[in-house]
Amino acid sequence: MKILGSVLAIGASLALAASAAYAGEKDPDFLCSPGYFKNHTEVWADLVDQATFDALIADLTATGAHNGDLKQSAAAFLNAIFLNSDKLEIPCEDGDPVE
Fold it and tell me: How far apart are CA 86 and CA 64, in angstroms?
């Protein structure tokens, strides 16, 4: 599971870079929190394959050392999917401001 978390963290870093370069109409200052994605899997479960879903859930529900980093990385990965899609709206656009 540590390998999946590391791979996901790398993917999330790339997703953050992609969202930083985003220039669309969606407001990148209001993105979904890790808690939102943990509690609302129905908005993203069909957008990823089963292995990615399992890895994201593991990171979104992580406990122990570095759990905050894992949760933030998973949320960044999912936010990037919504942010960079022409067909998907950010599901919690009135949500938490990004700090």
Answer: 37
Asked if residue 33 lies in contact with residue 95, where contact means CB atoms within 8 angstroms, the answer is: yes
pLDDT tens by residue, 56-80: 999 999 998 889 999 999 999 999 9
| Residue 14 backbone phi and psi in degrees, to 5 | -65, -40
d(CA 99, CA 64): 23
The gap from C-alpha 91 to its chain's centroid, in whole angstroms, comes to 12
The pTM is what? Answer: 0.70
User: Distance between CA 64 and CA 66 in Å, rounded?
Assistant: 6
